[in-house]
Design goal:
homodimer, alpha/beta, 14 helices
């Protein structure tokens, strides 16, 4: 029997306690011992909860209890979560988390601290919710040089874009719909501006390329600029629009960015709809591997947190092999130098477009504006061409092999 | 520095040696030491190989060399491979393999032997080639009760079916084409009759449900009965035809079988074309997870074998957590009791079909035969109905939630 503490009783925290309860048999079998929640840390009261006797409001109770060797931090953010994580690791307790912000901002320090203390800091749930990502990448594909990693990493924006695609909804209506259904928060900024995807691609890049990539190093464009017209034009041209986080090795550097992309409808990634997520990894031996599933949600995320708890319990006195080195400005290559075909929407006439861009593929949707796909060029070339009297209303990359 | 032996220098064996060579830097980093191939066991001569000095023809050389602590068995089959695997494990050497036949037939004994000797028997490459499957299932999803696991597990048959779909080819022409391109062997029986898929679903079932499922327990239908007409009718009805291995929990038993299925074109699985594979896992917390990539091929398979080598090197003196219990007849539920909608093709008239089957959906392709989709019923009900004077030329399940 091992006793653990769960920090935070929000959606993920309550899911963790629930999964540990309903699947206790299989979990005990896989951990080779029973796992019991001894404390739940939350300042709120849950008088009607079946777990109400487990609640404590003071972190010191947990920190000073030598019976607690594994802590699940599911508070989120970089305030109390950082403080509690640091102190838990320093006290020789392993920490598992779904907190992408904390891992993206402070992952390398926390991993270093965990290593010094010979305990584990695990965060499978921080990317892709319940989708297995971190172990496949760091264990199953560790005989590969990783060339690229990218994906649909945010369920809220994918839900909104899918709604726009299916029902012709405007962005603002689709956002309201997502909020009504509980797929978007009252303040949706972190999702729709791409910050959540930014944090996740930072974590994936750091794992794939071995050095910490910080959120501030990643140019990030959300989906607020995607219009109903863009969706219709893209559809006519054979594409869906999806928000991607993407990291690609370029020589000894990496290019990392977040932006909406056009994805060919004939590809598997275009079928990742609603709140589903997908992570695509390209390795030099394995080729392309795709991992898909529910990228968020109470039970899927809890499934990944509990898997980490089991792993921490199995490895109380040995270290799991997740780590990366410090990052730095010299690691990052400017993503605007990456080649791509591009989708553009503009007020300019087709004649003007063809004069500046040469041979392009025009959307055949009757519209007052002109939408088209360019040949392959990098972002700087697009900027140069656009300076010749064409104003882009929308400008998105086409995902492809360039 | 650790020294290993590779048993067999066929496609996978030469791939393993190649990947260890070209990716030696990242492999040494991830294994925390250099990995060197000391022996390659093969009775053939490879006089022009850059590795020609490593070849030995006598397994005893490897067995008796205490410097060898990890052996990669990539011979295939259940003859020499079984003998060498047993003796390696008995001698305290860890064994990694891509040999699905051996794992499917003798996995539980070999895992038991490895446990007794405190060494590892790892086989990530035996299912799905380079696709991460075994670690995601046994580690990332181990807080779940698994309800179902299924997938497109054989690249050769998927290539043939894709060719039939795209080009209207007959089965026999598509098979010849696949043989010409090297995607099918001269004797394609193991692939087209479903034996390869059978072995892989046995391994996946054993891992997912914790008890050994043997190939002889799994009703297996290959793709030789899929005709060009079936593909056209299925297309008209909104489906592609794919060969699936499928295992589903039914009470405290499991239903396991291999058969062609109709897959709705709107789903992700329908886009897994050519030689690509996909494994779908449904867990009670995580929901549905899909893992996709190259299911075979020299370098993808080698990528998985080398990942296991790295894992074995990291865990020379500790055990990885893969195991399952012995199976038995009482584990298996008759898959013909599983509900499904069905695709049938018959000489009977539409009137006769509607008389016996009630409301069905007919293919609108003009043809001398009648093709249609039934309501939901199990295989026994289909048999009963077919005894009323309707002869089925083809009979496949529709994949769906029933």
């Amino acid at each position: 029997m091992i006793k653990i503490a769960v920090l935070g009783y929000g959606i993920v925290g309550s899911g963790v306690v629930h999964v540990l309860d309903i699947n206790s048999g299989i979990i005990a079998k896989n951990a080779e011992q029973k796992i019991e929640v001894k404390y739940i840390l939350d300042i709120r009261e849950f008088a009607d909860s079946p777990y109400k006797d487990l609640f404590v409001s003071d972190f010191e109770t947990i920190l000073n209890d030598p019976e607690i060797s594994v802590v699940a931090e599911v508070i989120g953010g970089v305030g109390a979560a950082l403080d509690f994580t640091r102190r838990s690791l320093e006290a020789g307790k392993s920490v598992v988390t779904s907190n992408k912000e904390l891992v993206a901002e402070h992952g390398s320090q926390l991993l270093k601290l965990a290593k010094e203390k010979n305990v584990n800091y695990l965060f499978e749930a921080s990317v892709g919710g319940g989708i297995p990502v971190i172990r496949p990448l760091t264990q199953c594909m560790n005989a590969n040089i990783i060339n690229e990693i990218y994906g649909i990493l945010n369920g809220t924006t994918n839900y909104i874009l899918t709604d726009m695609q299916r029902n012709g909804a405007d962005f603002s209506d689709a956002l309201k719909e997502a909020q009504l259904k509980g797929y978007a928060e009252a303040d949706p900024t972190a999702d729709i501006e791409g910050h959540d995807t930014n944090r996740k691609i930072c974590i994936l890049s750091s794992l794939a390329f071995g050095r910490h990539v910080y959120p501030s190093q990643v140019p990030t464009e959300g989906i607020t600029g995607v219009t109903a017209e863009d969706i219709i034009h893209a559809d006519n041209l054979g594409y869906k629009i999806k928000l991607l986080g993407r990291a690609r090795s370029v020589g000894d550097k990496i290019s990392v960015y977040v932006a909406p992309h056009l994805i060919a409808k004939s590809t598997m990634l275009a079928d990742i709809d609603d709140v589903m997520n997908a992570v695509i990894i390209r390795g030099n031996a394995v080729g392309t591997v795709s991992l898909c599933g529910a990228g968020a949600g109470k039970l899927p995320t809890a499934s990944a947190v509990v898997a980490d708890i089991i792993d921490a319990v199995r490895h109380l006195h040995s270290r799991r092999w997740i780590s990366w080195d410090e990052g730095g400005a010299n690691l990052i290559s400017d993503p605007s130098l990456l080649d791509s075909a591009w989708y553009l929407r503009t007020d300019a006439t087709k004649e003007k477009v063809e004069k500046e861009f040469g041979s392009v593929v025009f959307s055949q949707v009757p519209a007052s504006q002109t939408a088209f796909i360019t040949g392959v060029m990098n972002g700087k070339m697009i900027c140069d061409l656009l300076e010749r009297g064409i104003t882009a209303k929308s400008q998105f990359r086409i995902l492809g092999d360039y």
